[in-house]
Amino acid sequence: MSLDTIKHYPVMLSEVTNFLSDNKLILDCTFGGGGYSSEILKKYSNSKVIALDRDIEIIQFAEKLEKKYLKRFFFKNLKFSEIYKVKELKEIDYFIFDLGVSHFQLKDMKRGFSFSSDESLSMSMGLTDLDAEELIRKVSEKDLKNILKFFGEEKFASKIASKIINIRKNQNISSGKKLAEIIETVKFKKSKIDPSTKSFQALRMIVNQELLEIYKSLKFIIENCKENSTIIIVTFHSLEDLLVKKIINFYGKRTSISRYLPQVSDIKKMPIKILTNKAIKPNSEEVNVNPSSRSAKLRAFTKICKPDFSLKRSDLGMEKYFSLEELYV
Asked: Is 129-208 the same fold as 3-104+210-315?
């Protein structure tokens, strides 16, 4: 399937672009189909956009924008945890994140995200050292159960893990279709969502280290970007949003940064100003047009000053997730 034939809906486009102003430098950290970048370049004619994406296959969209907006649009094939490689970092006014798997990747059968794919079980968004087939081949039953339980919030995690481990003793699990068939033998109960949805999400997050990517990039931006830059983040599931919220609250809300550090009573010392006390959600009209936007949440904040403390993984209470993401790489 050609990527040009797949309809792309940038989620909460107007809500995202309304945070911006003209004559600025914007970093689109998750280029995808170019929905945000394209609208920004059109709406703010004196602004420039640098776009990042770990998926080299979307280069076709980037090249079109580079030709259309000469010297205003620039693309880099990087994960957003590699923001430190962007030499213009100290000049950037806005950072935009649209987290999760792209519509193009979900629809591309050879990527292995689809339950009906007969092709390779990859689930890689790009620039990974691991794919889902390799993960399933070498993961222990205990770790697989925890992956499905923690990352997919899967009630049947133990039974699914046991079934997968037993099947792999005699045959390779090398396609999305095969994996989905195995899961369906355990989760036969009909529901609104496909029985494989939660398990596929969990495996995908491990392959792409999705939570570590968020942690590394937001920590680096807050501690290294220029003052008065604004960060806008759209999340799509509860774990992403929980992590983003914890990071924002650590730098922007907490009166006790850490039990090992002195109390911070002066709000001026907090390095960020939270712009969305409650997450912004898509309106009903957008959800009707694009049902996959239903779970989206937008959070934004502005960096006020350089923090005099640094976020550690242990501050977030999510080490069990981070450790699992690192375990098989």
From this structure: no
